Amino acid sequence: MVTPDVESDIELSDVESGEDGIVCVADIKKVITIKDLKAYFEQEQGIPADEQMFVRENEILYDAILLELLEVLPGKMQLYQKISPDESIAVEISPELLEGGRLPDLVLTITGGKCVSDLKLMIQKELGVPPARQYLTSMGIKMNDELPLCEYIAVRPPKFFLKETKEDLNNSSESDNSIDLS
């Protein structure tokens, strides 16, 4: 079984399950969506579907996504097992500020059920950076303020990257391409 601090590379073109965490789907005809893939791993590996997170190319793959649209043959995905929303965990923040540059990592303790916006308030208290100017990422994925942290915490110890921006992110376009991170 995949443990919370282990990631698995998934290649649907393979059909074996190994001790190194590489797990593959034998009957691709029954696996159409990410939700189907989660059901497969729940049945075959005992990982509850709601604790699974699939990531591909710095993007979380949600249940309704069709695998054929991802061109997953032979593309790779990582399978992570998420933490419980009730679990309290120390998260490591690697901050890079406009003035002061890269700072030593900051460790904050928070529960998985708290929202990213709650973490941003804690960062503001420690570093003085307003939440609207914080660009947080985890596993290369931009973190959404409204989502609970357990959606992003699958690797132990979790490490988030903070980049202070010149502009207020609340007033910018949703597109990552429009954000000035310099």
Automatic annotation (TrEMBL):
Residues 33-75, 91-152 form the Ubiquitin-like domain. It comes from the Eukaryota. This is Ubiquitin-like domain-containing protein. It comes from Thalictrum thalictroides (Rue-anemone).
